[in-house]
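Task card 7
Instruction: Convert sequence to structure tokens.
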Amino acid sequence: MNFIVSGDFLIITTIILIGTHFATFYFTKKHMKANSHVYIKQAKAKAKSLEKEADYALKEAKLKAKEYILNQQKEFDKKMLDAESEIKDRLKSLKKEEKDLNRERTQLKKLQNEYEAKIRESNRVIEKSAGLTKNEAYELIMKRVEEEAKNDMFNLIRKYEEQAKTEAENKANYILGLATTRFAGDFSAERLTNIVKLQSDDIKGRIIGKEGRNIKRLEQILGVDIIVDGTPRTITLSSFNLYRRAIAVKTLEKLIDDGRIQPARIEEIYEKVTKEFDKDTQKEGEKVVAELGLTNMHSELLKLIGKLKYRASYGQNALAHSLEVAYLAGMMSAELDGDELLARRAGLLHDIGKALTHDNGGNHVELGVEICRKYGESDIIINAIYAHHEYEEPKTVEVATVCTADKLSAGRPGARREVLENSLKRIKKIEDIAMKHDGVDSAYAVNSGRELRVIVNSHVVTDEEAYTLSKTIAKEIEFQIEKFPGDIIVNVIREKRIRSVAKSI
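Output:
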């Protein structure tokens, strides 16, 4: 019986617990539902508040924008008023200037009428006092007017020339600079610079390097100026030393192909290229010596002969000149029963000192003598080096032929830039142009024909005529002299000298 009561109790307890649970769940749900309405109301109230704030901010922004537009409009209106005022002032000024100009024109017309009246009165006075006919008086007056007009013309020319000098100075300098650039371009490109082509402009940055380290090292090692400018895919190497410049070009090309442009790599490539050039110059020397049929030449002399390929004098390649002298001397020596091979040897070595002048400085004759004595060349070779510049008299037939061949090679047409005879002819022609004019006592072309000094007789030529004479001679030179270097300045000198002698008692 107790067991049954206990079972019922458990059931009842369970039912009560379940009911309690469901009641708790119900009331909790109802409470949450009531709270959710509160949260929604709060959210709606906050949204409304934010909407009001946004409307206020929008209205405030519109007001500020309107205010800014009004300010800008006021500023613009003010500027327009200022501009209109300035234009009105300028118009007033122009009208005033126009009135002044009209007044001056009227005054000028009045003066012209007075001048013409005076001329007519002068004619009447001259006819009356001098008893001249109308035609005679007219001729006299015209002569006077012509002289006055001539003086006015010279004064006017001087005035306008002075004004033109200032305006034309920049243009003249530009034309002169352009003409100079065009004249020197080929020579510079051939004698002083080399162009290195690049695959792209990016390589320029690598050549320059960080903070310019690479280009500084390149210039230091190679001994040339490296010009990196705006020319696309191109850099320029500049140096008077053709041999050094050739090494620099080869070194730079190898560095670009290698791609590793850095100080350590630069030194490494430079050493390799230098060794290659030493070998190449020696091979070139051996080739030349073999071509001439010579033997027993020291290896250092062979290198120097090869280096002559990279030397030029007065536009003439030193190696080509030496070869030409060697062949000419050999042929002449053979005709004179001399030693042909010895003459060829002397002709080849007569300018050997030029291969050393870039690195050592000094006279190529003395350097040539020193190097040939060092490597055991004969006294005849030494005499040829001295004699071709008249340091000594030729002592043998071979030396005499070398001196003659040297003059023939240097003096033939086209060998050097300008022949002396042509220059002398041009100078003589310039002087003759000046001497053809009346009143010219003497004319001298000085400064290699770049200046002409014309001395005129002060009793025959006036100051005004001297000025005109200078212009006339300059124009005649332009038309009659076909080709001359630079400009020729024509100076007409007119002076009066009065000399007296104070005799001692």
